[in-house]
Structures are given as structure tokens and as C-alpha cells.
Amino acid sequence: MEYQRIELEQIVKPLLSWYDGHARVLPWREEISPYRVWVSEIMLQQTRVEAVKPFFERFMKALPDICALANCPEDELLKLWEGLGYYNRVRNMQKAAQMILNEYGGAFPADYEKLLSLPGIGHYTAGAIGSIAFGLPLPAVDGNVLRVISRVTASYEDVLKQSVKNAMEKEIARIIPRERAGDFTQAMIEIGAIVCVPNGKAKCGECPLAFCCQAKAKGIVEELPKKKIKKERRVEEKTILVLKEGERVAIRRRPPKGLLAGLYELPHLEGHLGEDEVLVHVKEWGLTPIRILPLAGAKHIFSHVEWRMTGYAVSLEETEEMDQNGLFFIDAKETEEKYPIPAAFAVYARYMDIVLGQEKYEER
Fold it and tell me: I need a surface site. Which of 74, 195, 216, 345 has the fewest CB within 10 A?
């Protein structure tokens, strides 16, 4: 990757000066610690800052330190993560916490290679923890940083290529001010998050780097960063069932491996089925349907799969053995409080009079 070194060196002082006056007040910045930086960075990987705030505060209250995270029961851990998605991330966090307890006496190692050896911690997260929590001159290159540097240098190289990320990490490492490594890391991320934003909305008039930005000078800000077009997601059709017996609803646990592994879900069938087909399946499960009502369609997007869903609410007659075929019936409020259900089912959970994950913390 070709850079004009003087340009990159020029960004340091104006960027830090801007950050000193524009840094957002965020809960994980109020008290800096390796643990708090780590939790926030993992949460922020696929979720907006404003959405993460209540999750972070709830998580820190329930699991305030490495020891609490390492020893948390899985269902409770997954329930705390409900609504953030990518549940393997929090499972890896627990594995890392257990490793920190066993190998480092419960304290995060202030060493880049040791941080990288922890489950679920890659180059970016290791750099963020190292620079923000320990003041080490380590690069933390996320999508925001890739976008800012691509525009400042007017680079058309594909930022999704690992070789491009590696080259950018090397250049960032070269210009990090050792006396303010953490502030520099946060400033780079911050300016990409609120000024040098994507999709043609960059606020160049407010940017402290506009004086040296090659993309601005060439009028190509909206063209950068360059990314290879991703493959289309695989589409799967599902029929979701809200099975109700009085005040109780049916849920089941997903397999221990694969998509949404180990979480709880509403029972569902493959394909978009009609009422008669659904009733046949319900009877095959040993249940006796009384009424069936169609529900609204919904869509949920995972990283590589898109679910297109239809649904039915089915009222059931109570029988001696309601819990069978992997289904078990519990009070709806108990489901909301104790059982982690993925956000993919949020639309249908409303028909159970419960809300999942992020919706609990939004003003209603």
C-alpha cells in the first residue's frame, strides 16, 4: 500500500486536538480498565454505540470483573447478551476470562501477543485493549479507521483484504504518539464514527483532517473506501409457531453447534406452510390444536443467511404430556426473564407479550 508519509504524520496533532474537544461521553470511557475496554469493544463490533450503552451497563452490573464472567452460568450469560447477536462472541469471552484466571492470575496481560492468544481477541481488539487500557503504542484498525485512512490517502485498495489491513496497521503503528496512544486510538475511531462517516454522508466541513485529505481534494470521498462486493446471502424460508396453552408458550433449545447454538427458540418449520400443513405437524407432535391464526411476515438477516418468515399463533388444548418432542411450555414472563431467545424471533415474541434484547431498553 502506498502512503505519503508526511500526510499521515500530519494528522496526529489536529486529530488529538479535535478529540479533546469532541469526544463523546460514553460509559466505558468513564472508568478505563482492560476489562471494560474489552467488553465494550466486543459489543461494538456489530452494534451501534447508542444501542450498546444499556447492554454494557447491564452486563457490567451483573458481571463486574473477570472472575464473575468466568464463572457465570451459560444461560445467564447468553441472556445478558440477548439482542446483541453473534453469541459465540460472548462464549469466547467467557473462555478468555477463564484463561486469564488460570494463566494470568485474573489480570489482563499487558502484552500484544498474549492478548492475541486469548479466545475471540484478534488484532483490532488486542490493539484497542493494549493502547486504551495500557497506553501501549499498538494500532487498532477497525472499519472506521480503514475508511478514514483510505480517504486521507485517496487509496482505492480493497480494505477487506487482509494484506491491506496489515499494511494500514503498520503505518498507524508508526505514527502513534507514545504519550497518548489510547487517546489516538479512540480519536481515530471517533472521527470515523461521527465525522468521516460512510455512504456519502461525510461531514468534510467539520473534519480536522480536511486540510490534508486527498479524497476531499480530488472529489472522491464518496467513492472510498473500496470494498469487494460480497456474495449474496442464502435465503431460507421459515414458518414460526407461537404455540399457546393458556398462559404458557412453547419454546425449545437449539442444537449445541451451528447457527444460534444452544439458545432457545420458538418452534418453527422449514418453508412457508399453509394452515392445514401446520396443523398436521402440530398434531404429529402429540398436541391438540383448538384455533390457528396467521401472523405477520418478518425478515431477519444474519451474516451469511437471511430468514424470510411467516407465522401462526396456535391455541392448544391441555394434555397430560405437553412437554415433548423437544418442546417445553413455560410462562411467557419466565421466558422473557430467564431464557435467551435470539432477536430473529422478536416479531413473534410480541405475540407472547414479551420483548427481547434491545427492545427492553428502548423507550416505549
Answer: 74
Q: Does 7 participate in catalysis according to the annotation?
A: no
| C-alpha to C-alpha distances, 273 to 203, 260, 268, 297, nearest whole angstrom | 48, 23, 10, 12
Instruction: Please check the confidence at residue 5 and state whether its pLDDT lies above 70.
Output: no
Domains identified in the chain, total number: 2
> What's the pTM value of the predicted model, to 2 decimals?
0.84
| Helix 74-81 with 49-62: angle, nearest 10 deg | 150
Tens of pLDDT, residues 341-355: 998 999 998 888 776
Choosing from 175, 191, 223, the residue where a domain stops is: 223
Q: Is 363 exposed, middle or buried (0-12, 13-18, 19+ CB in 10 A)?
A: exposed
Q: Name the active-site residue from 2, 7, 31, 41.
A: 41
Give the number of C-alpha atoms closer than 13 A to the C-alpha of residue 360, restricted to the C-beta side: 20
140 touches 128 (CB < 8 A): yes
Cα-Cα-Cα-Cα dihedral of 356, 360, 362, 364, to 10°? 110
User: What φ, ψ does residue 122 adopt, rounded to 5°?
Assistant: -105, -165
Indicate which CATH number applies to the domain containing 262: 3.90.79.10
